Automatic annotation (TrEMBL), chain A:
Belongs to the binding-protein-dependent transport system permease family. The chain crosses the membrane at residues 29-55, 124-145, 166-196, 216-235, 274-300, 320-343. GO terms for biological process: transmembrane transport. Pfam families: BPD_transp_1, BPD_transp_1_N. Residues 124-339 form the ABC transmembrane type-1 domain. This is Peptide/nickel transport system permease protein. Keywords: Cell membrane, Membrane, Transmembrane, Transmembrane helix, Transport. It is a multi-pass membrane protein. The keyword Cell membrane applies. It is found in: Cell membrane. Residues 1-20 are annotated as: Disordered. SUPFAM superfamilies: MetI-like. InterPro entries: BPD_transp_1_N, MetI-like, MetI-like_sf.
Automatic annotation (TrEMBL), chain B:
The chain crosses the membrane at residues 583-603. Belongs to the bacterial solute-binding protein 5 family. Residues 88-467 form the Solute-binding protein family domain. SUPFAM superfamilies: Periplasmic binding protein-like II. Its main location: membrane. This is Peptide/nickel transport system substrate-binding protein. One of its GO terms (biological process) is peptide transport. Coiled coil: none annotated. Keywords: Membrane, Signal, Transmembrane, Transmembrane helix, Transport. GO terms for cellular component: ATP-binding cassette (ABC) transporter complex; periplasmic space. GO terms for molecular function: peptide transmembrane transporter activity.
UniProtKB/TrEMBL annotation, chain C:
It is a multi-pass membrane protein. It comes from Actinacidiphila yanglinensis. Pfam families: BPD_transp_1, OppC_N. Its main location: membrane. This is Peptide/nickel transport system permease protein.
Amino acid sequence: MSSPATVAGPALEPPAAATRRPRTARMPWARYVAGKLAAAVVSFAVTLVIGFVLFNMMPSDPVRTMTRGRPVSQAELVRLRVQLGLDKPVWQRFLDFVNDTLHGRLGYSWEYQRSVASLTMSRIGPTLLLMGTSFVISVLLGLWLGQRSGWRAGSLFDRITSSTALTLWSVPTFWLGMILLMVCSVGIGPIHGFLPAGGMSDPSLPQSGLRHYVDVARHLVLPALTMILVVYAQYVTIMRSSIIEEIGSPYLLTARAKGLTDDNVRRRHAVPNALLPSVTMIFMHLGTLISGAVTVEAVFSWPGLGDLTYEALKIPDLPLLQGTFIVFSASVILMNLLADLAYRFLDPRVRAQ
Amino acid sequence: MVLRQRPRLLAAPAAAAACALLLLGPAGLATSAAAATPSSTSGKTLRVAMDSSGVDTLNPFTAYFNGSYDIFGAIYPTLTVIGQDGRPNPYLATSWSMSSDHLTWTFKIRKGLKWSDGQPLTAADAAWTLNLIMTNEVAGTANGTLVSNFSSVTAPDPTTLVIRTKQPQSNLTYISTPVYSIPIVPEHIWKSHVADLKNYKNDSFPVVGYGPWQLTGYKTDQYATLDANKSFVLGAPKYDHLIEQLYKNSDSAVAALRSGQLDYIEGVNATEYSSLKHASGVTTTQSAGNGWTGLELNPGAKTRSGKSIGTGNPALTDPTLRRAIALSIDKQTLVTKVIDGYGSVGQGYLPPAWPEWVWKPSAGEEQTYDPAKANQLLDQAGYKRGANGIRINPKNGKPLALRLGIHSDDSYDAAISPYVAGWLKAIGVKVEIDPMSMTALNSDLGKGDWDMLMDAWTNGPDPTYMLGIQSCTTLPDDQGNGGNTDAFFCNPAYEKLLSQQQTQFVPAQRAKTVDQMEKILYDADVDLMFYNKTMLTATSSKVTGMNTGTPDAKDVYPAQSSFWSYLKATPKAGDSGSSSSNVGLWVGIAAAVVVVGAGVTVVRRRSGADDRE
Amino acid sequence: MSAAQVLSSQEVAAAVPARFAGVRRFARAFRHRPSGVAGLAVLLLFSLLALVAPLFIGQDQLDVTKVDGPLLSAPSGHYPLGTDQAGRNVLLLLIWGSRESLRIGIIATALTVVIGAGIGIVAGHYGGWVGRALMHVTDWFIALPSLPLAISLAAVLGQGETSITIAIAATSWTATARLVRAQTLAVEARPFVERARALGAGDWQIMVRQVLPNVTPLILVSSTLTVAGALLSEATLTFLGLGNPASITWGEMLNNAFFNGAFTADAWWYLLPPGLAILVVVLGFTLTGRAVEHVLDPRTEDRS
């Protein structure tokens, strides 16, 4: 587990001057940003190398797979291999790959015969919608339940909340999705399916306007619900332990001494103070959300990046798999970077300077 | 660890990021929605499940996937169309004739047809399309082999198309049919895209074409929307709109069918079919299957020049062992258990969908399930059983252990392979099941690095290509490159017949030659046919007429084609099309409210946090 | 929720008391945590089932060519959990599946612990550029989203249990490495390590003799939670089609159910049990792990 304070690592920060104040507070803003940026760039570079090494280790002949079932001549197969660069030596492919990636090209999909960059771009919207919705709702739900049960740790409410969260966390995401699909969409016993079984919109409806948005929302219900149920648990746990950490703090005693009600002490003092550490942790766990997206999108045919990964996996379409891997990693690196910068920017002691 | 030491700060970053995500969501939604043109929704809509392969590209010159060809069949014309008899019938061409030297074909093209943008559709369009495929490397990507024997294609006048071939070509009337082969595209549209053909996506909607339907929108990996061409020359579609929707999982498609969101699925699996048979509101039908599932045995992989390559087990070069394996497999059980009886035991190499080419072994030549005989054959050939029951190869003293490569993404392969392993164990052959991705499996196949591979093919009405992949000419060169052989089969007698059938223009004569080729394949035990499964379809009871032809004694229809099914589909009287259920609508609204509510809460939280500081 | 996250607030772990007294005290304290006891009981039950399964399940009952049950039929007296598409008894498959699933989970965890603890101890012990470099590598791996990485690894290594096991280990060692490094730093600051150093103990000796025994309890706790995660990952990767379709694991059963029409057939008896089994075992590992963690370090034992 990383935290903003450790992601960059010591090597990228200046040697610590003898000072009682936190290092971050002394470092000029620009330098801090540069450090974090450099770290992110290095991370990304490593991701690229790992990605390339991974996807070029495997012997694979995509050409016959791609053309399966069509009467394709041998000459055409040879031409395709050349077109995909499969005839080049590895080092040359690596140079091409680095060059391509730096120019925003992520290779050429075997399956779709389209540039991976354009494929992934077209899938980002749905993924953001699904992940954004699930993220917001699960964070709110998790934080609210977490602070409640942390404040009254050991109460019936706490025990129910915690054990529910723990149970849901132990459920395989895709299985929960399958069960929801079976009950709400296929229908089981007396229940008739009442939600769409997959996809993002009903093509027989107009693809714009209010009706369309409602339609998309209907399609969003099951995948989002699945993700929320699995993900919110960890937010509960995080917030609960943060609140418990706060409970013993002297400032809460002071607040109580001022005569504030218990509720007010919690809402005005304990919760705000517990929020930041929790929120930081939550951002560090964005990777879980991405993992969830892959399986949930696969189960519900949600046309996002996860689904694309799943499609690529079947062949496997290595350039596409490599592309989604890079996009996922880049987004996590980017989110961590943003969290770092926001953290610094919002640190009151820094702002005070 | 860090919690305790970290300074207490604002809650704002989370809230801000959350808001950003919330705003980005609908934005992303808007961009993705922009791709499809809203089509008019008045009239009746037929909603079908897209072929599960999906659409790789809408460019008919570079597309490989069946889902793409279903669409091309609907929106682009072809010279001929495969009729219910499985033979080419008139479409753009009303008649055709061949010169006495079998080298020049003259097609009479219909008069007065117009592309959907009003431009005339003439023989010149067909000539242009075929010439482009012949001369342009990119245009030949998917269908180049079909025209590789052409020497020239001309259109002397708008109603005449003349094709000259280098050698006689018996399958010439099959080279441009809906769904299976070359679609004709409008020259006036495509002329300007020749330079950038490789990257041209053909996605300016509505797509200019001619056919029973016109493509009005397409969303990658989701659906395609089409409108009917009410003046279509072979009869107007009965529906006004057609939607092809892609389902990744056939169960989802079935769920959609049952809840009224879908009208037709071609290719449900056996389990689904069995349970749908009794479902209300659903009609199920079987039609003749156009493919086979089987097992390839590596007969000793060789290159074109005869050099041995690969790591195939040398024991399999012995025809006795291959025959013993063939006899040890209980194909009927596979039909009964793996495909729930929806199919027939595989024998001939070409599938039942095209009765013209179907071959069956005569009574005495059938290879039936007979493990005792298999054991006897092996005993006689000197394969003695070792201590653990595994036989020893007398030639090298090694136990008979064979790898069985299966496609890891194919559930039939996974279901069949344990049976094969069980049956081979009974004749003293050890099997190691090796699931591989498609690309890895094909890589091993081409290099000869395999013993046994599960295999499945489907093919169109013309057998040329399927017969071709068993030819010696498809073997790889000495470096292991360039091959597209199916199983390293190479037989001189077969080779002779292969070129012979290419020059036979009387269908019955050609069929006779093809029968002989199928017999050679059957006796060689290189491609063991397990079964031909029937095509299982499920149709909403609100639609009729989707199946053409009359069912046989086993209630199996002749092979169906999406071209005819969609064209003939008729709404049942009184059906107003379908609407989504109200419960779902309300759930959708509720979901929207929750999202908005969550957003509002976040915003309020944030302002609260600011106050505090 | 990774192991590290649950353990995060006890970076400075409890001292390890003298062996036997410690074990007894541990057992006594553990008994007072009913959820932990329940979790442990579940684990013991499943382990027992997995171990004795070969005594009452013969290959004939799992071999599709030998079984003769009805295809995909609902539970009945003879088949308490119904049958699968090949007519095999789902209950027996479920029990047999526990062997494979648990084996993958445990081997993956062992690998995770070896890699994670190795890197953690080395990084903590050497500090300097070695430690920094190792922690950099760890950070990079943390930044990679684990499921896409595992998917890519498994896709590249080829289908089957081995590659799934490696993929799981390769994506989950980072949490252990960080924990162990922190603990190593704490241990090395203690006087007895300095004493050993003064007496001429080499790096290797200090790491193996002094540090390792002191980080072991922490490793144990974190590994129970890693097993839980590994089981979930195994199921997910198998479900995505990276497993060996010929083997019997819970993930493989779900994959079969999902892609072969079990929904349409309303075959709940085929869909529910493997998922519930995963749920129960993962919960068992998690509960046990948390209980052990709380017992070792009562400070995490808030006020509940």
